[in-house]
Amino acid sequence: MTDVLDVIWQGLRDSFLMAWEVWWALVIGFAISGIVQAWVPRERIERAMSGSGPKPVALATGLGAASSSCSYAAIAIAKSLFQKGASTATTLAFQFASTNLVWELGLVLWVLIGWQFTLAEYVGGIVMIALMGVVLRAFVSPRLEAQAREHAQRADTGHRHQAVGESRNWRHRLTSLSAWSDVAHNFRGDWQMLYKEITVGFLLAGFIAQLGDDFFNGLFLKGTGGALAAVENVVVGPVIAVLSFVCSVGNVPLAAVLWSGGISFAGVLAFLFADLIVLPIIAIYRKYYGTGYALRIVGLMFVTMVIAALIVDGLFSAAGLVPTGPRPSRGDIFGSIAVNYKLALNLLGAVIFAAFFWLTARRGATDPVCGMKVDKAKAVRMDFAGETFYFCSSRCLHAYEVDRAEMGADGAQRRHAGVHVHDH
After folding, report:
1. Does 68 fall in a domain?
2. Which whole-number Å values give the CA distances from 233 to 224, 302, 306, in the listed order?
3. Which long-range contacts (CB under 8 A, 24 or more apart) does 312-316 make?
4. Is residue 423 domain-resident?
5. Which is it for strands 380-384 and 387-391: parallel, antiparallel or unpaired?
6. What is the mean pLDDT of residues 13-29?
7. What pLDDT score does 167 carry?
8. 16, 78: one domain
9. 424 occurs within a structural domain
10. CB 251, CB 218: distance < 8 Å
């Protein structure tokens, strides 16, 4: 019994430490998503990122490299870009760049397992984007892409508000409480839609980490050398990632476990690349875009990750850059909470999170149909019997009117009480 309790404690502890690692990135990523949804005009996004040629893909790559390193935040931002007209090629390029070309991921890799992995991660991210552009249409047709965009717009998180003053300049938005209220409601809506998937992802990572080196080591070939081991390792690496990964920076400790246990250089890279196809994220893709499109892009990403890992491994082997020195021990991979830059960033994240939720509470009301927080000043409203009801959309208003006509106001409210966010 004591051993079981110890495993539970260690699993929860590691889950918390991984959450601590990426909390600030999650908050900032979702804040960026909220700003994009609320402030960026659709026409501007369409002009800049609607194509699939080199220029819009390069723009998306640069934007991704400059954004959050967290996979959950990356796909939230990519969803808002896709809704506003960005193509599949540009949104996937953004996601690949956001989870492979960011400086904080490279820094953690350098510290734990060496600069060669940092360089390989950056090179691999660019290779994946190039491969994705070449093979995209073999997986996603223009018709399927259009259907996915319609699904994304219908299945929004239920908090799509009019962008405040799209004709106004950024200086006015930065000083407008109404503009920040739009951001806050989009921010809260993303969290309400995804918090379950994110929580499950952290818990999976923490508890699978308790399985130990022997479990992981038995999953890949060692000592055989040659092409067979390389191919097997780059396939097994993503499989392990699917079962154990939380967010790209939090994935690095488990990559160090695999490297110390004997997995190949290519296998570690494939594991690191696979942060965009883990089970909780696949569930989010399905919620955002529909099952068909979700499965196609997951297949596309898996193929590009495997091939990119093999290409980078070949290039680094030819250049003599594959590490040959001592590998890190398990005791090196999990850190601890300390007074450092990470503490400051997480405190900043907590302040941002609290400020946005406070703003939605101050200016918001709860939609009685879907349960979303909406800005009273911009919501669809209905006055009845001296009481005002606020709705996120005319669809929720219509649903409430139908139920009120059939059941009465009290019955409609009871029916919708506690209902989770639905797709609009």
Report:
1. yes
2. 11, 14, 9
3. 312/120, 312/123, 312/124, 312/127, 312/266, 312/269, 313/230, 313/234, 313/264, 313/265, 313/266, 313/269, 315/123, 316/116, 316/120, 316/265
4. no
5. antiparallel
6. 77
7. 47
8. yes
9. no
10. no
